[in-house]
Amino acid sequence: MFVGYALGKDYLESDAGGSPDERLERLVFGRFLTPEARKTFFESYKEIEALWEILSPDPGLRDHIATYKQLSQLYAAVRNAYAAKVGFVADLAYKTRRLIEESAEQYGLGRLTKTVTFDVATLKSLRGEDGSDEGKVFNLVRGLQHEIDEDPAAAPVRQPLKDRAERILKDLEERKTTGLAAMDQLAALAAEKEAAMKAARDSGLSARAIGII
Fold it and tell me: Are the C-beta atoms of 154 and 197 separated by less than 8 Å?
């Protein structure tokens, strides 16, 4: 039996309710919310991946292709869901990456790693959408990082907000707060951000100047 079978059963068959995307989202932002849980899974998966790269295309693996493919897609989903920047095949090894890329299905990756704008309107919209609050929190913080990367001139205003957003994220990962409470805290930060940017526009000063002042 291929060694990935047991790990696949553990992670892939642990939740049978809802659509595939809903099950994936609950798994990624539930079971893998803490860094320790992700580390354990990543280490176990990488051991299996190394064996697959050595043994493939052994005919004896044929019955395990579907399970290994799902497990690899889950690995990519978890890596991307918690990463600052998204790359749909994460750091998969060569043969595994080819296996994943042969499928048009991205196993719900887009749902987990949406690029969203960190503002009050987006937060209000997200509250009305289906999906986990934890996932929305990660996507919002990723969106704030993207804004800083795209507009360095506004970093003096946005960087302190990002630092505070990341502290909220850390509390969520350590289960010191809930996804709903984290959303409320991010909503307050988004309001602060919009007020600061408005002050910069109204004063005629740049965002950098407002940050220095």
Answer: yes
